[in-house]
User: Fold this.
Amino acid sequence: MSARRLLTVVGALACAMPSGCTTPDPDIVYDAYGGTAYPDKRPKLPKPEGYFAYVSENGSDTISVIDLPRNVRVAQVAVGRDPVDLDGPHHLAVDAKGFVYLALQYPQPTSLPGPHSAHASSTRKGWVVKLAPDDLRILAQVQVDANPGEIVLSPDGTKLLVTHFDLQAALNPSASAEDQKSTVAIIETASFDQPVVPAPRFVKTCRATHGAAITADGRTAFVACYADNALAIVDLVTPGAPVTQVSVGVQGPYSAVASPSGRLLAVGATDGRETRLFDTTTRTPTSITVITPGASYFAAWSADEKTLWIPTQGPDAIVAANAETGAAIRQRRFEAGTCEKPHEATLGRGEGALLYVVCEGDHKKNSVILGLDPTTLETKATIDVGVYPDRMAFTGTP
Amino acid sequence: MRRALVAASLLLASCSSDPETEQRSAVEHGRDLFASTSTSEAKNNVFACATCHRTTPGADDRILPGADLAGAVARPSFWGGKNLDLLRAVNDCRYYFMGAQRAWTDQDADARGMYAFLESLPPAKTDAVAFTVVPSAVDLPAGDPSRGRVVYDKACASCHGAASSGAGKLRGNIPTLPGESVAYFATLGFDRTATRITFVEKVRHGPFLGLYGQMPLFSTEALSDADLGALLAFLALY
Assistant:
């Protein structure tokens, strides 16, 4: 090839490949930002003297923080994962270090007929989130089944039990008996510290699981089976262990609250209007039952296990009863505007503690928690909280 | 011949030079991301932050679902108060609208660049921005179609393209309005009223409240009911 021809070929190649001869785009290297990006500006929770309580507020997507020595709300913090939709924070548990475990239940949205609302008719999964003690930010989260009902922490804080109040499945006549059952989710709390939180262990349990309690040794859970009129006994330690069911002889067991020693459960029935005591050592219902004027919800135990306080709905009332005989000691009906739909009674900690009653309200407006004298049932404090409160959990000591 | 070889090698060498390196600041990093779809790693993402947000109030007259961002770093809350963390607010946009599956942390270079850019903006509005979500869609009275055309051009066209033709739409599967959506609803047996309310529902709820997709939602502050009624009239949905 002659020199002239070589130059011609190279020149032609160069012209045929204009991109190869244009100035290439520069590689861009960005300086690192040296400041503090996204500083934590969340308001820190005031730390009341003594002890305080968290209240889950289903209808306002919030948790209220209650200063119990003063019986006033000191903070209300937005919680949840969804920036638009109602997450439905439904029941919570607090561990010894102050970490809060919150169940999010995601109610079905109310939409008009349309292609989108048709999609919304599917059942929505729930979540459990772990929240930081200082500002309730989400530290970790894990998905559970739809309609999480109760969330219970084992006494040593290593396990969480989450029930699923799946009435749609329970009442579906075309579903098989197995498919009508709800699960419970068993979560190792240490799993929240992993980079990716592993899925919980789900155990098919019974129809419409709701109230639950864990034994003192953390090995067994007793779960209220609302649609089976029974308690399910779940082995929390052995995967694959069979679930057993024991009839409790009440209609619609909704709540199950362990006595301080764990020996007895107060099983509240919303359909049967009674609270039946269940012996966890013999795993049988006792003959002691408290007949209530309305649907029985989550009861409170006295420290000596001799007294029960049972909130009822329809009528809205609180009943103090002898836990050794089932006889009612005192009853107070809440006059209109005082405490609509009492959901839970819980006894405060320490000498002279009040009996707190969580009032659901009308599920649309802010509601209250009443602090009652445990003996007279007179109101000693009224605490403003958010919309549809449903659980009050204590932390700290008086 | 030797001279020809030297010239040829010089010519070829000039075509294979390595690209130069350009150094940019962290603020420029965020500014570039703000205008880029690379804020999300999702391959089908067509949104940039700038699709839905202005940086400075009054910079243009688009009707945007997202708040103006000047002053955002000082705001106490976002998304109408449901979100108390700026980074989480950013990640929510990346997840719900841009399809990102990995949340940024405050140590990610992109996240830090975005913060530098937002911090560099003037503190025009440091209060929380009102963001009222309509919980249940309802039918709206018809507005003025000529106003509706303006609303369409300022609020819808940037993603859906030109009305009726879809010319210039951001992505092929974004429906051309109103034709493709109306035709789809017809296959579901929707009458005119149900179709209209479904339009309202999509505008007000975006991918939330049980819906699907990646369309950002318009709060009542971003788009009034009157303007939405005008838009429905322009789209001949009455």
About this structure: The mean pLDDT of chain B is 92. Chain B is about 40% helix and 0% strand. The radius of gyration of chain B is 22 Å.
